[in-house]
Amino acid sequence: MRVVLLGPPGSGKGTCAKIIGEMYDVPVITTGDMLRAAVASVSPLGVTAKGYMERGELVPDDLVNDLVAERLREPDAGNGFILDGYPRSPKQAEALEKILEQTGKRLDHVLHVNLEDETIIDRLSKRRSCPKCGAIFHLDNKPPSTSERCDVCATGLVQRNDDKPEVIRRRLEVYREKTRPLLDFYEQKGAINAIRGDIDLKELPATLKRVLS
Ligand code: ADP
Ligand code: ZN
Q: Could you give all domains of the chain from N- to C-terminal order, each with its CATH number?
């Protein structure tokens, strides 16, 4: 199963990606997480990416394209993959097309996870994540059981730097400008499936299964 997830920041792509990855036993490739790991490890990529990410801008296409190309060459991606947060610009979509061509593979689905700006801003500003294991919480909808600590590993939760209101607004603009046009690009290649990003978590696996079957 090879799937691309499209949708604004905070729409719920990551949650969908995780469920789909488990359902079909394929790796979830999340460029945001890979870039945050690069920043944390102060690798050359991380040093360059940091400023862009803090401002809510896209990291330059060439860097992200190389990162993903390399990841897709790993053996576990041979049976399929879920791309979460990539492609995010026309140049990235072209790069992905090239990779697929070279490997003689096709995407099975492009899934658009959508949500209104208002809900997104509320979600992202109340989002807290675990810097150690990556678990994600929401102060109202999915609060951690111990205040501000991860339920999985008890690490203190943090707010992502780019989940501050001004940066959220910029990320939404960048989405509209650079990523939204990809909906047309993929629509022309074949059908896009769409789901709302605020489907009840209990219903989400069944809904995803239906949409992807
Ligand atoms: P969200 O989808 O909630 O905005 P992500 O974790 O996917 O968050 O991305 C966080 C930041 O990482 C983006 O604002 C951007 O700076 C960078 N980033 C992630 N994926 C890409 C990509 N495919 N191309 C360029 N930059 C990216
Ligand atoms: Zn944790």
A: 2-116+176-212 (3.40.50.300)
